[in-house]
Design goal:
single chain; alpha+beta; Rossmann fold; 3-stranded mixed sheet; 3 helices; 3 strands; globular
C-alpha cells in the first residue's frame, strides 16, 4: 500500500537522455531554477533536482535527472524503462534546439521516433 504524502498529490519522475550538447542541461536548469546559460558545460554523470508545481489545485512533485547519454541508445532506454517500471508508464520523446536546423541529428521529426516510442 502506498503512503500518502501531505507535501504533494502526484510524483512525476523525469529522466533527460540524449546526445551530448543537445541542451538537456539547459532544459533541466530552465525548468528547475528558471536559468539559461549559453556557456553551459557538458554533464559528467548525473544531476538531480526537484520542483513542486501547482496544477489546478493539485501539487505535483517533479523529480528530474539530467544524464550524459546519446540518442543512439533510445531504444535500449525505452526497453529498460518498460522492463523495470509500471506497464502504464508515460514516455515522451522531446526534440530540442529547433533554432539550429543545420546541426540536427534527427532531420525529420518523424524519422523513426513514432515507431520507437510505440514499441511495447
Amino acid at each position: 500500500m502506498e503512503e500518502s504524502n501531505p507535501d504533494y498529490d502526484y510524483l512525476y519522475k523525469l529522466v533527460l537522455n540524449g546526445d551530448l550538447g543537445v541542451g538537456k542541461t539547459n532544459l533541466f536548469s530552465r525548468f528547475t531554477s528558471d536559468k539559461f546559460s549559453l556557456e553551459s558545460k557538458s554533464t559528467i554523470g548525473v544531476e538531480f533536482a526537484t520542483r513542486l508545481i501547482n496544477v489546478d489545485g493539485k501539487i505535483i512533485k517533479a523529480q528530474i535527472w539530467d544524464t550524459a547519454e546519446t540518442f543512439e541508445h533510445v531504444e535500449r532506454w525505452l526497453k529498460e524503462l518498460r522492463d523495470c517500471s509500471n506497464p502504464n508508464i508515460v514516455v515522451m520523446l522531446v526534440g530540442n534546439k529547433a533554432d539550429q536546423i543545420n546541426s540536427r541529428s534527427v532531420r525529420s521529426p518523424n524519422r523513426g521516433c513514432k515507431g520507437i516510442c510505440r514499441q511495447k
